[in-house]
Amino acid sequence: MSEILIVGGGAAGMFAGICAAKKGCSVKLFEQNEKLGKKLFITGKGRCNFTNACTQEELLEHTVTNPKFLYSAYHGCSSWDMIAFFEELGVPTKVERGNRAFPASDHSSDIIRALERELKRLGVQVFLNTRVEKLDIDGGAVRGIFLETGKRIPGDKVIVATGGLSYPSTGSTGDGLRFAREAGLTVTDCYPSLVPFNTEEEYLRRLQGLSLKNVTLTVEREGECLYREFGEMLFTHFGISGPLVLTASAHLAPLAARERLKAYVDLKPALTREQLDEKLLRLFEEGHKKQFKNVVAGMFPAKLLPVMVELSGISGEKPSHGVSREERRRFVELIKALPMTVTGLRGYKEAIITKGGVAVSEISPKTMEARKIQGLCFIGEVLDLDAVTGGFNLQIAWSTAAACASAI
Questions:
Q1: I need a labelling partner for 100 at 20 to 30 A (CA). Which of 16, 43, 155, 293 fits?
Q2: For this UniProt entry, which segments traverse the membrane (predicted)?
Q3: Which DSSP string corresponds to 87-125?
């Protein structure tokens, strides 16, 4: 009977343990926290968006880094397989906007408890409050692990499922990346991802708490468009956040970490500049005796109005009939491209995932085994794989865990 050692009791580690035990292996799972699934507990704001109910092609499309590596893993374990898996474990599920799959209860604890029950049913030995210090590697093969206490645990295969660097309070402290380096594997540069942006402009601080829906965010570098997407965003005390911004960070994290970037928000993407100009003309004609700030008040949320008036350079008290053609043109441009300067990323404490990790060129895509070290596998976020929000990153965890276990 193969002796399988799993380091890390998050989504990937627990699922790998279940899959390996189903194959008849003896499985030991080591978790340094006092409980399993600590990061899984806070996923999806505590609701646990555990996958995205979409096709394999769509999973690949939404994977930002190294999607081709996941082709085999996604084929072997799809999002529909995971929905069926949890349903069979007695967790009713539901699919919401954007194909996001959740437990019907909206409680991440239901997902974690189901995984814990299955681990127990299958006889997986779980060691909590147990930190793995290093791997035991000899002669090009892994022989086991050493605990922090110095105790050696022998094993035929070691599966590293320690996560990345995001949310360090949940135990993601980069141990798996260190194990990889010590084993002679390449670890790519790491960055916080699915994370808010810091911005420079003072006026954005005054918009703190304001959420904008149905807007288009564009991020540029020296006039070159790096990212453009339609959706929802949020202003904060430090800059900008929300779905649009988090997705932008997944694509731009390495650049945003070292360069200042320009961002623009199109507040009225459904209207062309010409249509917007015509709309303003009508408003000015209908309220030609009214002050400029009152005529345009209905176009923006209350919190945004004073900022827009200030940035327009037009006095709020100016009668609308006195607004010149050039002033109107500049105001249209402001509405179509509210400017801001991205000065950097927020840190790992706020990042949903880590971008970067163990180089997949040194990992077998069918088995998740390191090409250089026999029996040593890496799964989940510790690998250089990441996707946008919507359950895709957890699907990476499930799929890589299943691929690893199926090859045992």
A1: 16
A2: none
A3: HHTT--EEEEGGGEEEETT--HHHHHHHHHHHHHHTT-E
- Tell me, yes or no, if the pTM score tops 0.90: yes
pLDDT confidence of 288, banded at 50, 70, 90?
Answer: confident
Question: Can you read off the two tokens belonging to residue 32?
Answer: 């340094």
Are β-strands 26-30 and 125-127 bridged in parallel, bridged antiparallel, or unpaired? parallel
Quickly list DSSP for 228-295: EEEEEEEE-SSEEESHHHHHHHHHHHHHHTTS-EEEEEES-TTS-HHHHHHHHHHHHHHTTTSBHHHH
Residue whose tokens read 């249509």: 275
CA 80 to chain CA mean position, Å? 20
d(CA 15, CA 86): 11
- Rounded to the nearest 5 percent, the helix, strand and coil shares of the chain are 40, 25, 35
d(CA 297, CA 200): 26
Over residues 351-377, mean pLDDT = 97
Bridge partner list, 67: none
Tokens 């990212």 correspond to 227
